[in-house]
Structure to design on (78 residues):
Protein backbone atom coordinates (compact mmCIF):
# COMPACT_ATOMS: atom_id res chain seq x y z
CA UNK A 1 0.00 0.00 0.00
CA UNK A 2 1.39 3.39 -1.03
CA UNK A 3 1.85 6.09 1.54
CA UNK A 4 0.54 9.57 0.72
CA UNK A 5 2.89 12.51 1.07
CA UNK A 6 0.95 15.21 2.93
CA UNK A 7 2.83 18.04 1.16
CA UNK A 8 1.85 16.69 -2.26
CA UNK A 9 -1.75 16.21 -1.19
CA UNK A 10 -1.91 19.80 0.11
CA UNK A 11 -0.23 21.14 -3.03
CA UNK A 12 -2.71 19.23 -5.19
CA UNK A 13 -5.59 20.64 -3.17
CA UNK A 14 -4.31 24.19 -3.64
CA UNK A 15 -3.78 23.63 -7.35
CA UNK A 16 -7.33 22.29 -7.65
CA UNK A 17 -8.71 25.34 -5.85
CA UNK A 18 -6.80 27.65 -8.19
CA UNK A 19 -7.90 25.88 -11.37
CA UNK A 20 -11.48 25.55 -10.13
CA UNK A 21 -11.61 29.25 -9.25
CA UNK A 22 -10.34 30.26 -12.68
CA UNK A 23 -12.83 28.00 -14.43
CA UNK A 24 -15.64 29.41 -12.29
CA UNK A 25 -14.65 32.98 -13.17
CA UNK A 26 -14.69 32.31 -16.89
CA UNK A 27 -17.86 30.19 -16.90
CA UNK A 28 -19.93 32.39 -14.59
CA UNK A 29 -22.74 34.45 -16.17
CA UNK A 30 -21.84 38.00 -16.98
CA UNK A 31 -23.61 40.92 -15.33
CA UNK A 32 -23.83 43.45 -18.12
CA UNK A 33 -25.82 46.11 -16.26
CA UNK A 34 -22.69 47.31 -14.49
CA UNK A 35 -20.58 47.36 -17.64
CA UNK A 36 -22.95 49.72 -19.42
CA UNK A 37 -23.14 52.06 -16.49
CA UNK A 38 -26.23 52.73 -14.48
CA UNK A 39 -27.97 56.05 -14.62
CA UNK A 40 -30.19 57.13 -11.76
CA UNK A 41 -33.42 56.37 -13.65
CA UNK A 42 -32.53 52.77 -14.41
CA UNK A 43 -31.27 52.28 -10.85
CA UNK A 44 -34.58 53.57 -9.45
CA UNK A 45 -36.51 51.28 -11.81
CA UNK A 46 -34.38 48.32 -10.71
CA UNK A 47 -34.98 49.12 -7.03
CA UNK A 48 -38.72 49.44 -7.59
CA UNK A 49 -38.83 46.14 -9.45
CA UNK A 50 -36.92 44.37 -6.67
CA UNK A 51 -39.04 45.92 -3.93
CA UNK A 52 -42.29 45.03 -5.67
CA UNK A 53 -41.25 41.39 -6.10
CA UNK A 54 -39.51 40.78 -2.79
CA UNK A 55 -42.10 39.97 -0.09
CA UNK A 56 -39.61 40.41 2.75
CA UNK A 57 -38.72 43.94 1.68
CA UNK A 58 -42.40 44.73 1.22
CA UNK A 59 -43.20 43.42 4.71
CA UNK A 60 -40.40 45.45 6.24
CA UNK A 61 -41.58 48.64 4.54
CA UNK A 62 -45.17 47.99 5.68
CA UNK A 63 -43.94 47.44 9.23
CA UNK A 64 -41.94 50.66 9.15
CA UNK A 65 -44.98 52.55 7.91
CA UNK A 66 -47.14 51.08 10.69
CA UNK A 67 -44.51 52.05 13.27
CA UNK A 68 -44.41 55.62 11.91
CA UNK A 69 -48.20 55.90 12.12
CA UNK A 70 -48.24 54.57 15.69
CA UNK A 71 -45.41 56.90 16.67
CA UNK A 72 -47.34 59.85 15.25
CA UNK A 73 -50.48 58.74 17.12
CA UNK A 74 -48.61 58.55 20.41
CA UNK A 75 -47.03 61.97 19.90
CA UNK A 76 -50.47 63.54 19.37
CA UNK A 77 -51.83 62.36 22.72
CA UNK A 78 -52.05 65.05 25.44
Amino acid sequence: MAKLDSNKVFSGFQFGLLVGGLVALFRAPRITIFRRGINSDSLAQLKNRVNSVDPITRSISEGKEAARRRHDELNQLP
